[in-house]
Amino acid sequence: MSLDFIQASIADEMLLVDAEIRRQLHSEVVLINQVAEYIVNSGGKRMRPALVLLSGGAFGSISAHHHRLAAVIEFIHTATLLHDDVVDGSSMRRGQETANNLFGNAASVLVGDFIYSRAFQMMVGVENMRVMQVLADATNIIAEGEVLQLLNCHDADITDEAYLKVIHYKTAKLFEAATRLGAILCQASSNDEEAMARYGMHLGTAFQLIDDVLDFSGEAAEIGKNLGDDLAEGKPTLPLLYAMRNGTPTQAKLIRDAIEQGGLDHLDAVAAAVHETGALDHVRNLAQLESHAACAAISHLPVSNYHQALVELASFAVTRSY
């Protein structure tokens, strides 16, 4: 499954979103332009802004407000990436050097703040308090998710539920906001709005679960980051938790030590344990359930190219290799 069909269905609309992104990123401060341009030009799947457009299209219309809010969603995502890479000490993202590695931590944090605040300036222009409420709530919950993840680092005893809560807050919430906004701008019924929001939440959860799988099974050049990044930071992801519970005592101790100490000294041995215990298949199956739940949430909507693209996107989320 590729992104070709999905991207083709909104290609012209995404060009307008890209134009909005570049227009809104402009600043008289040279460093802001340099960092922002670097991030925008570094690629990425642009799934989150695409969801605003696809959601709107599924309800019959894509307006200039959809373009603007798609850009807002991308700005919020970009700001979190800038901040994340500083917190995590990451050196590679999307196959390129991270902004913090290139421009320094201070520049990344401050430009991230600029992009966040610009997003709020833009959403005010839509003049819709419901939109403001959704985005304000989402950004606050995302921040809570970031802090929860920080607290969970090096904790090998967290439950699957606690880990999934981080996913729902930190990653899936912005997917949910994107699909909900597309519906709100089309004045969809409350039931349809909630259905689209459920689609986004399940899709975002599936997407992050596969990211966790790829951290142990992908190719660094293809996934655009270093393998074992999460392990290096002591993040207890679901594949690690499953392998620790279902592996031999030796494997369990190895994984526990790796989570508690961080680093990549035993990456190969930990990766072998994750593969041997069936942890990756287990997490892939969970992601598949989330993908099915996403599709089920919008199964009642009228058939259209946009609806089909949303279904294809749910499939891509769990079959991708990058």
What key attributes describe this structure?
322 residues, mainly alpha, Farnesyl Diphosphate Synthase, two-stranded antiparallel ribbon, 76% helix, globular
Describe the structure.
- The chain has one domain: Orthogonal Bundle (Farnesyl Diphosphate Synthase).
- Helix content is 76%, strand content 1%.
- It has 17 helices and 2 strands.
- It has helices spanning 4-9, 11-25, 30-40, 47-58, 64-88, 99-103, 105-124, 129-152, 160-185, 190-217, 220-223, 229-232, 238-246, 249-261, 267-276, 279-297, 305-319; strands at residues 92-93, 96-97.
- Strands 1-2 form a two-stranded antiparallel sheet.
- Strand 1 and strand 2 form a beta hairpin.
CATH architect. name? Orthogonal Bundle
| CATH overall fold name | Farnesyl Diphosphate Synthase
CATH class category name: Mainly Alpha
Fourth-level CATH superfamily: Farnesyl Diphosphate Synthase
Domains, number: 1
Structural class, from secondary structure content?
mainly alpha
Q: Give me the side-by-side strand order of the main sheet.
A: 1-2
Low-confidence stretches: none
Following the backbone from N to C, one meets helices and strands in this order, namely HHHHHEEHHHHHHHHHHHH
Q: Quaternary arrangement of the chains shown?
A: single chain
Q: Return the average pLDDT rounded to an integer.
A: 92
CA-atom Rg in angstroms: 19 Å
Family: Belongs to the FPP/GGPP synthase family.
Organism: Novimethylophilus kurashikiensis
Cofactor: Mg(2+)
EC number: 2.5.1.90
